[in-house]
Amino acid sequence: MFLEAREDMRSAKKSDEPRMxxxxxxxxxxxxxxxxxxxTMFIKFDATHYEDLGRMIxxxxxxxxxxxxxxxEPLYPFVVSVSxxxxxxxxxxxxxxxxxxxxxFVFLTQILLWVLMKQLRIDKKIRFMILLxxxxxxxxxxxxxxxxxxxxxxxWAIGIVLCLAKSYRIIHNGMSDKAHQAKNKKDAGYLxxxxxGVLTAFLxxxxxxxxxxxxxxxxxxxxxxLLLAGFAWIRSQKKVFCYxxxxxLITGLVYQSTIAAFKSxxxxxxxxxxxxxxxxxxxxxxxxxxxxxxxxRMWMAHLASIPGRGVCQKFFTQQECEFTGFEGADQHRIYLxxxxxxxxxxxxNAQTIALTFGLIRxxxxxxxxxxxxxxxxMIFWETTQLGFVGYPDYLQKLFSNSLLKDGLRFLMSFLxxxxxxxxVGYLYRHRLSLVKPASQKDGQLKEIQTLFFVVLxxxxxxxxxxxxxxxxxxALPIVSLFLVCIAFLLDGSMKKxxxxxx
Length: 502
Fold this sequence. Notes:
This protein is mostly helical and 502 residues long. The chain is built from 23 helices and 2 strands. It has helices at 2-38, 46-60, 62-67, 75-90, 94-119, 124-136, 138-144, 156-172, 178-183, 189-210, 214-234, 238-270, 279-290, 296-304, 309-315, 318-324, 326-332, 348-362, 364-375, 393-399, 402-429, 443-465, 479-501, and strands at residues 40-41, 389-390. The protein starts with a helix and ends with a helix.
């Protein structure tokens, strides 16, 4: 009877999970629907460019997009153009359709977030809490209701992690369980890895079409597979060696051939074999700003700007705080003109990048320190004041409350920083598990591999963005991974407390 009662309790707990998920999703949908119809998109700054590009694609087609290029990455303007087409059909403002699309991307991210947390064996209560917070996060909902490309970027990083981790597990399992391998005479590993290679390339392509920085992150994400191939070669593990190179080859071919085709279209229509514009001159401007001689006061202003412009302006002037941000870089872009006079247009990017690396080589330590300071801005991602959205009066008043906006920002940045350190420490303690043979049924190994790719996506992303000026919204593509790290931290702390209690 006792055993039957326990089984009933277990089955009841299992049935509670889908019920709770439905309740969480329903609550999010009701709130999102309310925001979609009761908020206003403010079209200014970069949003005007996205609107103009969307209208260009809708009215004049892709040939005009390429002819006037290189332009911004194509994903977001394309979705805006679809919203405009639907707006003309149904006689509804295109912003409504745009917000609906962006809400769908938030929902997709929620599903992937749940899957990833489940793979990490995070306690169900913590998963529910994280999922609910994500659905009501002020910064996430602000992005959903504003005309900025980050709203379309939030699912791809977590999707890339899931694909990379699964592919690595398939390859890594070839190191062990020889008896199991001997029974499977027909090797389906290549077919599975082919499918995952194509899927990984697809996710990277979508991410790159939204944020060009993923073109440079691509090599970081495939590096573990090349290292695994190296270890396999040393250990004479032919199967693992072949698996690793096969996956890298498929992913690389699909990804690079598509990127090359897009660049070729730009080359054909506007003479620039580039994915997008702007990146080289911003890289130069930030490097020039960071290699100038700075007073001790300006060094302190850079440190004060990490939590946000509001904190900086409590101690420094507005002009000093603007210098530490993107405005300071914008002021230095004008100096590029004198260096590229007479340079053919198709060689301007290459010349600009060469000049930038020259500046960095002249002052490497100062540049590295200031870029490191810039990188810390990424953990201050939560905010009720992202801007570009008009809320109903009561919500605007709530989000302007100092206790809420400052308290929430501080709490989430503290948890994010602590969680990243905790996860990196955990991976360091189990670093050998990533390359040594282990049982296929080892749950902790799966956890370690998945967390490794979470960190692998986060760290290079922050590192590359630190070469430019970081705005709060730039962190949105990896916010879901920050929350996964926080969930893992809370889960580990809870289990530790329970074990001490017992």
